[in-house]
Predict the structure.
Amino acid sequence: MSRRAGLALLALAMARAPLAGAEDPLEAVPPPSALDGKDCAVLAALDFTEAVGAAVKVVAAPVAADAEGPARCRVTATVAPETGVEVWLPVDGWNGKLFVAGCYGLCGSIRTDQFADAAARGYATATTDGGHSDARYPDSRWALDNTALEDDFGHRAVHVSALLARALVEAYYGDAAAHAYFRGCSTGGRQALVAATRYPEDFDGIIAGAPFHPLLSVPHMIWADRANTGPDGKPLLRARELGLLQRAVLAACDGADGLADGIVGDPEGCAFDPAALACGPDADAESCLAPAQVAAARAIYQGPVDGAGRSLAPGAARGGEGTWAAQLIGRDGRPPFFRTVGQNWMRYHAFEPDPAQPGPLVFDFDRDPARLAPAAARAGFTTDLEAFAARDGRLIAWHGWADESLQPAHTLQWWRDALAANGGAADVARFARLFMLPGVQHCGGGPGAGDVDWLAALEGWVERDEAPDMLVAWRTKDSTPATTRPPRFPPVGEVVLKRPLFPYPAVARYRGEGDALDPASWAPALPAAPASPPASPAPPPAPPRTEVTP
């Protein structure tokens, strides 16, 4: 037992000391190493304020093994003001390590399924609700004029969860965790990069998937929605047109990796221009694009620009157009998803103070990008990985090339900036790697292979210095995005796709022979030079809505 844990239990015992002649109080409080139900309940009586830096309320109770996980001491806690935390401490077979899972969307609930795979491997596990308990999405009314909750959602919730989980581990087992890891995707990916750049002492290894970027993601959503909205308020590109784009991109670029398999292996090298689908005088209107539709597609690929044509954020990758409908086309009378997310972010997160007037808001691409910075500092991350690298931290970042929600080019922009800020590619490769997954949608799913044992790769790098020079990605018939259910390994179910992954900028090229499901049939190759995009489009005209004026 550690000295701190022993002192904590001694203090508890002394506080409960009976009158002279009664039984020894230390016998009434068994040591944590006994690992029975009474020991679990003791955790609720301990004071974790000093360890966390804030008031903590703890409830602890033993839970028998069930379909969700092994036998465990289940701890639920609230860190002031409102951050919810849940920690599972396995009764038997603890592997000596801690795993913390991020949340996604706007958080607002505890999702223990996000760490269930790690719990099955013997980890002590933890997660958080992101600082609030409103799970409606996308709806951030909880953040209105509440910078304390925005701070918790933006950066503090994962930090205090890690501090509390470490203290609980040491109090329960009598030993500190040998290693602590974090994994998240989407908002969880943002939390991962916040941890690496803002709280480098919290984790030894971090997995950052498809990170939301406060300065790039929402402007792109607003831009793409506006570009795809015609003068009549209806979408210019619907499912038919998006299907045309997808098929044309595949025809132009699918075979560049040596195998025509319905997946663009190197979207950066794909030079497809939607003008190739422009309707001619004798064209079939069902198999071509009108001028306004060509302009909309070009604008989405290009990404937002200001009135002078200066790029504000990279645009969408080629190869995932068939999945854009969910984001750009409203359903059942509801507005498009990108519009809803953009309005919510502008209303409650983007600006300080929050805009006061009712009604829809309009983002000004000349004025508003600079106004995002103060609020983005609450939820954003930097490129400063110096402290994380100095303590031998390891970072694995990844993004699906066919992500329909958060653009892979935004992660690439952060990555290139991080290389420049941290000594260049060779220095960064010592502690960080980026993997780009062809054909994989947001946090998984899609035609590509998106199931990767990121945790095993991180363990090997942190614990045995085995850098991930090549990883294997799978897709089974029942593969789902990681935010739905992280996959278990080895894969369960029929494997329909299997591909090697190489650290960016390398891409996988089919050797021309052998089983395409065998990673040995593929080799790493440097990609083609990024394709030159069409000329920057003019900003789409703003619809007649209320301007953002705090």
